[in-house]
Fold:
Amino acid sequence: MAIEEYIKAYKMGKKEYQSRMLRGLKPTLEVLDDILPGKGTLSEVPLGLVQIPVDQIVGTKTYGRSEAFASNFMPILRENTEFAIKWAHLSTAHENEGIREPIKAYEYMNKFYVEEGNKRVSVMKFYGVVSAPAVVTRIVPKRTEEKENKIYYEYMDFYDKTKINYIWFSEEGRFAKLLEAVGKGEDEEWNNEDRLDFNSVYSRFNAEYTAKGGEKLSITAGDAFLSFITLYGYEALKDKTTSELKALVTKSWEEFKLLEEDKEVDLKMDPGKEKKPILSRLLPISAPKLKVAFIYEKTATSSAWTYAHELGRMHLEQKFPEEVSTIYYDNTTLDNIEERIEDAIQQGCNIVFTTTPSFVPASVKAAIAHPDIRILSCSVNTSHRYIRTYYARMHEAKFLMGAIAGAMAENNKIAYIADYPIYGAIANINAFALGAKMINPRAKVYLEWSTKKEGNVVENIRQIQPMCVSGKDMVIPEEASRYFGLYRLDGEVPHNLAMPLWHWGKFYEQLIQTIMDGTWKYDDNPATMQAINYWWGMSSGVVDVICSQNLPIGTKRLVDLLKNTICTGEFNPFSGVLYSQEGVVQNNPNKSLTPEEILTMDWLAENVVGSIPKEEELQEASRPVISQQGIDITKG
Structure:
């Protein structure tokens, strides 16, 4: 009988009521009128008849019947009341034919508050109905700088194009990332098929995520879903069976848990010291033979970046001729990176280095599928628990390069050619500018981007007429060019002054040593669940500066002095009072920026002439790198 169902619902309501009372929380329904801000800060927009997620119905518009329900919308009035009888009739109607009459509701900040139909909502929640028809009026708050408000405005833009109202994020920018992940433009209208496909993928994921305990995590299901489809690909997930989807959710669980962390990345600033227990140091351990794969985006003859890593691979073979063997794959693309990692593993490789940020998603997928294989990706500030990432503190070398440029630029004009606006790159630019300013307070650094769609870098530099130019870090073997490192221009002829060095061999040597001596595992801290990034600098020999023999002896001595103070930790390029183009960044003369602040900086030093480009200003080829490593350039 329907009244028996009411009694079950009543018990659920009383349990929720008492639980919230004990925790000092409001035990009954939220009332929208009680939480809305003052008049004049809101506007109303009718949305018409729409399907709304039942689990996002959280309260009532006015006080009215709010006291008849616990906060979970279950009834708390006794079964002998008129209210209970009406509820029971609705229960019978739902079991026979379903509740079809739309409710009336207000939507505010992506939550729904009932004006008419509270008992219908209660019955539907009791029976686990997923969505319900409703005539909805949206209450739009005034724009503010609060994060929740900004996310809500992003949601409204997303809803206008998609008419999807059941997904939410805890951070700004993720609705735009979701559109990109499903292959849709920000201004592209979704058709009914698009919505059905999305609902199918999301609802199946959400069912497995919830069953696994997703509601206990502090992130939203939307946060987890975005991470999931970014990793495995939206189109690929459409064809997954329920069992396949369940297995992937289970394997990806540490990735979801990592999204909860405030400090997502554990930066290892220098090679770790010996941490093994005394007993393990006394007893010799036979190190297994290591086979290492290096996966390059380009070839060593066509790319300075690949060439530097290839030199590192050869250094590794020379350093450990008996213990380590290596293979490499070049000309790797986003289309074949997954099969190349898989091939390396099938070839017996137990360590895989992927040497560009755009290969991070494939690296994570492979690490999840092969938990016994050590996979590392050359990127920075990338928070994935299953892989470790590595990079170098090149800004230390760039500071020295800037100091040289400041000393050599008699006309106070220096050009700096950058490639991608990614993590670490902005720090390189600013460190260079600060180095130049320290030696020459009048020095200006003119910033050019080689990856912008518009403009001619060579012509722009010719117009500026700088005395010094900071170009590509290394020479490309195929190019017989001297336009690399820091050079002076004598008419059209470059005279090299100094070159920053990425000594990846030193990095690979020291990292492999930690694996062979058993200290690799001590970097991992299961208690913090943090992703690990090795971010080593001059003190470990991973970066350096090579000076031309034609550099004045006084300038060389200055470089050596600055290098020594950086290596010993006595000096930080980002210490003391710092000014950006917008004003003061740091006003404490005794303070230095933290590593996290250096990595994620999105400002330019006051003596930089130029700006950080927005994504739409960059060439299409830069998109894979920007999507993985790009800083927040919405302000650019």
Notes: The chain has four domains: 1-142, 145-260, 266-392+506-538, 394-503+542-629. The two ends are 64 Å apart (CA to CA).
